Amino acid sequence: RRMFPTFQVKIFGMDPMADYMLLMDFIPVDDKRYRQVMPCPPCGAQYAFHSSSWLVAGKADPATPGRVHYHPDSPAKGAQWMKQIVSFDKLKLTNNLLDDNGHIILNSMHRYQPRFHVVYVDPRKDSEKYAEENFKTFVFEETRFTAVTAYQNHRITQLKIASNPFAKGFRDCDPE
Amino acid sequence: RRMFPTFQVKIFGMDPMADYMLLMDFIPVDDKRYRQVMPCPPCGAQYAFHSSSWLVAGKADPATPGRVHYHPDSPAKGAQWMKQIVSFDKLKLTNNLLDDNGHIILNSMHRYQPRFHVVYVDPRKDSEKYAEENFKTFVFEETRFTAVTAYQNHRITQLKIASNPFAKGFRDCDPE
DNA sequence: CCCTTTTCACCTAGGTGGTAAGAT
DNA sequence: ATCTTACCACCTAGGTGAAAAGGG
Q1: B90-119 residues near strand C (Cβ < 7 Å)
Q2: Which 8-state DSSP code applies to residue B126?
Q3: Whether B145 CB is under 7 Å from strand D
Q4: Which residue's CA shows the smallest distance to C1' of D12?
Q5: Which residue range or ranges hold the T-box domain (chains A, B) (predicted)?
Q6: Which domains are delineated in chain B?
Q7: In b/e form, how buried is each residue of A132-143, taking b as 16+ CB within 10 angstroms?
Q8: Residue B1 pairs with which residues in a beta bridge?
Q9: pLDDT of A44 strictly over 50
Q10: Is the CB of B148 within 7 Å of strand C?
Q11: Which of A110, A134, B81, B113 places its Cα 20 to 30 Å from the Cα of A43?
Q12: pLDDT tens figures, A131-159
């Protein structure tokens, strides 16, 4: 499924006439597997779900194939990338290790850090030699998240129902 | 609206590593304006519509702005263009002279010839000088058509209902 | 009379969380 | 008990011709 909210960036400082590739990948935040805690068993599922928090459940599962998502407009000129916010709304996540749709493969119940990479398309013939200096990586720690197959927290569910247009069918109240 | 059927081409002979832009435009086939003929007035509209044919109605209206439609994947490498059929399914036509959606503007009741252009993206600094030799134009006369705002022939209507997936709601019979 | 515009029901295509069943 | 899968109703977004209304 899509990642929501979508990762978006505003870019400055590119060479307007040069070509760039924009891409994202995801690295594990730690070597842990998480699980839900049910702090108040007799109360029933509802309360526990609301107040849920993450507990370490052990060591991480084997790492998934480290796939990469190229922004579909790549390659494009710096001027094109800079003139508006770049949105990675086509990026999709899956837990299916055998996925053949090119989606990003993650382990459920593990924490991930999205990364954003800018690659300068070097016009020189021996451009491979300069690969090291032709890309830059940006990490925004506030975008870290725990991958799940089903929501573990009602506030996350409500936040998504409130803000994702495709979940409009589940809204109770005001249509702002 | 979209042009249907979609203009599609299979490309051979490009340099797999070079960049190309693919685009289309539309030129008038002649300097005429057409109109419907109603060959059998007392019979009512139904029969006349079925057997309709085009009559010259006079000289063409003033030419519309000669817009161009770039294939949205442009620019891309020759290898990319050649590995599958290229489909211009995002191309849209309009009769609105004030259109600001970048659609191709045509005069209704006029005949047009679609043209397909391949532009080699010349990496040389003085590439403008070679513009003349860096593109090639292809014309398929079987793609000529008369632009209309409403269908003038039931067989065209039925052909489109039968073959355009979005018109499935109007099909009477077999769902092949 | 002939053509154009507007609106509409009905599609395609695909993104939501809910829910029940399945797996461990 | 906890997590995953499969399916679903309900959305967004937008491409169809029909039909009625509008224009010259």
Answers
A1: 95-96, 108-109
A2: T
A3: no
A4: A166
A5: 1-172
A6: 8-163 (2.60.40.820)
A7: eebeeeeeeeee
A8: none
A9: no
A10: yes
A11: A110
A12: 889 999 999 999 999 999 999 888 999 99
